From TrEMBL:
Species: Dendroctonus ponderosae (Mountain pine beetle)
Coiled-coil residue windows: 344-371
Main location: nucleus
CC per GO annotation: catalytic step 2 spliceosome; precatalytic spliceosome
Protein's UniProt name: RRM domain-containing protein
């Protein structure tokens, strides 16, 4: 029973930890859904301009702009993180291609290097479709929930209208959610009220992509189950399992006894007698059937008491087990042979079941020991490095350069030289330095007024980083059609987001 309780406790702990890991993973995916990538930003723009442009869609948690330590300017892209995923979705839908600072910015969603999060994102969005909720942002501070409800209830009956309250509780955060009774009312409200001027501010209205209470986050309680409750639950579960095991064992033993009882019945054509030590007992003579020679020592069936003569001439019955040596008589019935084979199969099955249970216990123990390893993004970010070489390890990571597999070729051709065969020629030439994944020829306009002011950028992505570095070192300074080629490594993040403005 103690072993059973320990096993149940291990299973409970593993299941509890798996549930917490799933909750943390869902929370991390929701955080990821709050971020948008903004590219093709003019180098003259500052963070304040980006904040003012994206603030109408919802409260911004942070803006991360990547800065170049040499030029002391940003690299032309930024990551904007909102407090809720709906704000990021609205910004993605309405800000892509908007001109800011003389350039059309690019706004894309979540980074493509996390494919494992897409399944959780699809699951969250499917749950959100069960509710007819809409998201309303850029609400004036002087308006309250009753004002918003009176405006939006013209499209249909409202289940609830809730504005997000600020930390003090006196003012709201400028956004809220409205749930309608029908999907048609929600769709009509989105189509009619988006960019509607309400109190001097243009409302931003879109569909909610998360279910209610999705952003409550994981519980901050302890990772350890309550001891008293866990032990009591484990004891009750182990008791039930033990009763089920006893019942199944009784049934198995009954079947085994039936098989053994059939084996103890001797064949009708073979009379069995005791060995010579029991000659004093009355026993019928052994009669051999025609054509059959009896073995030298006749073996009694299992469970038969054979009298044994002790030193003081006291006869003591003893149970013997049969050990057959030599061939089995050919006149044994097929039923007896089948029964013996059945017993052997049952013993083998019991042995395999015991081995499987032992293996399962070892796997559970291994999972229980490994449960303290970081399983989520947040745990991995907060993971500490211990040991005497910790500082050296951290310094090595900080000094490590960011690898890039993309080479940008400038001043290689002019706009008039771009034709259908140029891409094949560049791929064939760059294949000398490694495996080329793809070649992209990008025409970048330098001004909105002059259509002829265009420069050609050629991007070559290799399979390995060292191949890109080899191509850069070999191609830079070379002449191609009378032009001196300028080759350099291109930012991998910009390239993966199809941002060729760097």
């Amino acid at each position: 029973m103690e072993q059973s309780i320990r096993m149940v406790l291990m299973k409970q702990t593993i299941a509890y930890q798996q549930q917490k890991n799933k909750t943390f993973q869902r929370h991390q995916v929701l955080v990821l859904m709050c971020r948008v990538y903004v590219g093709s930003i003019s180098f003259e723009l500052k963070e304040d301009t980006i904040r003012q442009s994206f603030l109408p869609f919802g409260p911004i948690k942070s803006i991360n702009m990547s800065w170049d330590p040499v030029t002391q300017k940003h690299k032309g892209f930024a990551f904007v993180e909102y407090e809720i995923p709906e704000a990021a979705q609205l910004a993605l839908e309405q800000m892509n291609g908007v001109m800011i600072g003389g350039r059309n910015i690019k706004v894309v969603g979540r980074p493509s290097n996390m494919p494992q999060a897409q399944a959780v994102i699809d699951e969250i969005q499917e749950e959100a479709k069960q509710y007819n909720r809409i998201y309303v942002a850029s609400i004036h501070q002087d308006l309250n929930e009753e004002d918003i409800k009176s405006v939006f209830e013209a499209f249909g009956p409202i289940v609830y209208c809730k504005l997000a309250q600020g930390p003090t509780g006196n003012k709201h955060k400028g956004y809220g959610f409205i749930e309608y009774e029908t999907a048609q009312a929600a769709n009509e409200a989105i189509a009619s009220m988006n960019l509607f001027d309400l109190g001097g501010q243009y409302l931003r209205v879109g569909r909610a992509i998360t279910p209610p209470n999705a952003l409550l986050g994981p519980s901050t309680g302890s990772n350890v189950l309550p001891t008293a409750a866990a032990v009591a639950a484990a004891a009750a579960t182990a008791k039930i399992q033990a009763m089920d095991a006893v019942a199944s064992n009784v049934a198995a033993l009954g079947e085994l006894e039936n098989c053994l009882s059939k084996l103890t019945q001797p064949a009708a054509s073979i009379p069995i007698v005791a060995p010579a030590q029991a000659s004093s007992l009355a026993a019928p003579p052994v009669i051999a059937p025609p054509g059959l020679a009896l073995p030298a020592a006749v073996v009694p069936p299992p469970g038969v008491a054979i009298p044994q003569k002790l030193p003081n001439n006291i006869i003591q019955p003893a149970l013997v087990q049969p050990v057959l040596s030599g061939p089995v008589p050919t006149n044994l019935s097929q039923a007896q042979i089948s029964n013996r084979s059945t017993v052997a199969h049952q013993q083998e099955a019991m042995r395999r079941a015991a081995e499987a249970q032992l293996k399962q216990q070892e796997e559970l123990q291994k999972k229980l020991l490994d449960q303290n390893e970081p399983q989520t993004l947040q745990q991995q970010e907060n993971m500490s490095i211990k040991g005497q070489n910790a500082r050296h390890f951290v310094m090595q990571k900080l000094m490590r350069k960011v690898d890039s597999r993309v080479v940008i070729l400038r001043n290689m051709v002019g706009p008039e030289d771009v034709d259908e065969s140029l891409q094949d020629e560049i791929q064939e030439e760059c294949s000398k330095y490694g495996q080329v994944e793809r070649v992209i020829i990008y025409n970048e306009r330098q001004s909105e007024d002059d259509e002829n002011d265009v420069i050609v950028k050629i991007f070559v992505e290799f399979y390995e980083t060292w191949e890109a570095e080899k191509a850069r070192d070999s191609l830079t300074g070379r002449y191609f059609g009378g032009r001196m080629v300028q080759a350099s490594l291109y930012d991998q993040t910009l390239f993966e987001h199809s941002d060729f403005s760097g």
